[in-house]
Amino acid sequence: MAKPKKGKRFVYSLKTLLNVRNIREKQQQEKFNAAEKKVLEEKMKEAQMKKEQEAHLLYVNEMLSSKELPSVTTIEMHQEHVKRMEEKIQEQKEVVRESEEQRDLEQQELIKKVQEKKIIEKDREKTRHKWKKLMDKLDSEFLDELASIKFASNMIKSSDTTEEISKNKLDEQEF
Fold it and tell me: Are 20 and 145 in contact (CB under 8 A)?
C-alpha cells in the first residue's frame, strides 16, 4: 500500500498503475463483447441451418405424399442432402459450444481484470483517507502552535502591563 505524503494536493503514487488497469479492463471488455457477438452469430447460423433443414424436410414430405412418386435417385439425393445438413448442424453446434467456452474464458479474464482494478482503487481510497488524516493532524498541530504562540504573546503583554502598572503604582507612592 502506498504511503501518504505531506502536500497541498493528494497525489496517488500508483496512479499510472491504476490507468494501466483501466486500459486493460477496457481491452478485456472489448474482447468479451467480441466473443459474445461471435456466440450470437454462431447461434443465428445454427438456427438458420435448422430452418433450412425443416424446410427441406417439409419439401421432401410433400414430394413423397404427392400423387406422382419421384424417382429412386431423387429420393436418395434428398436423403443424402438431409444427412449432410444434419452433419453441418452438428458441426455448427460444436462451433457454438467452442465459442461459448471462449466467451466464458473471456468473461473470467474480465472478472479478473475488474478485480485487479478494484484492488488498486481501494488502495487509492485508503491512501487518500490516510493522507486526509495526516493533513488534519498537521493542521491541528499548526493551529495548536498558533494558539500557544498567541497565549504566550498575551502572557508577555499582560506581564508587561502588570509590570508597568506596578511601576506606576510605585512611582505614585513615591510622590
Answer: no
What per-residue confidence (pLDDT) applies to 62?
85
Residue 55 lies in a domain: yes
Per-residue confidence at 10, pLDDT binned at 50, 70, 90? confident
Domain count, the chain: 1
- Say if 159 falls within a structural domain: no
Coil, helix or strand at residue 161: helix
Backbone angles phi, psi at 66, to 5 degrees: -75, 165
Distance in angstroms (rounded) separating the CA atoms of residues 8 and 5: 10
Q: Which amino acid is at 80?
A: E
Any domain includes 164: no
Sign of CA dihedral 115, 116, 117, 118: positive
